[in-house]
Write a structure and sequence with these properties.
single chain, 161 residues, mainly alpha, 78% helix, elongated
């Protein structure tokens, strides 16, 4: 469970980076491209989801002494939350590359399935690991979106000469 606290710290840091992105984006222009706005919103949402699901087991353990039951409930909620986010990614057509959307949808679908299995069958010995994988997926999505936001394409740079 200590790993959850570490992941929460990383997720909070990622959410903090969003303020830096806002400052730099606002400095260059007041208008955001639709793609950048979608990436920014995605980064913030994934970071918040990761933080929430890092702390949720600690809140629920107060109501149940059985760690397995708590992780099953958390996995079920993470399954539903991830399914909603993946379903929302389908509507982002035109705001990101098709291969990025397909990767997000496929990897998200795998996470949804694993969390569903974890919630229903609670595979002994793997329940915490599968739950951590689901939380880490959201953290990785936030990090990927952050890099996509700050990456400056070669087409938008000029030569030093």
């Amino acid at each position: 469970m200590d790993t959850l606290l570490t992941l929460a710290e990383v997720a909070i840091t990622m959410a903090g980076f969003s303020a830096i992105v806002v400052i730099f984006k606002r400095r260059t222009t007041d208008l955001w491209r639709k793609t950048d706005a979608d990436r920014f919103h995605g980064m913030v949402i994934h970071a918040i989801v990761a933080v929430f699901f890092c702390f949720l087991p600690f809140l629920l353990i107060e109501f149940s002494a059985n760690e397995t039951d708590v992780l099953r409930v958390c996995s079920g909620l993470l399954c539903v939350t991830t399914a909603v986010i993946v379903a929302n990614a389908v509507r982002l057509e035109g705001t990101s590359n098709a291969w990025i959307r397909v990767t997000l949808i496929c990897s998200g679908g795998i996470i949804v399935a694993l969390q569903g299995i974890n919630a229903i069958w609670s595979l002994s010995g793997y329940i915490l690991g599968l739950y951590l994988l689901g939380v880490f997926w959201h953290l990785a999505q936030a990090a990927i979106l952050f890099v996509m936001l700050i990456w400056i394409p070669a087409s938008q740079t000029e030569s030093d000469q």
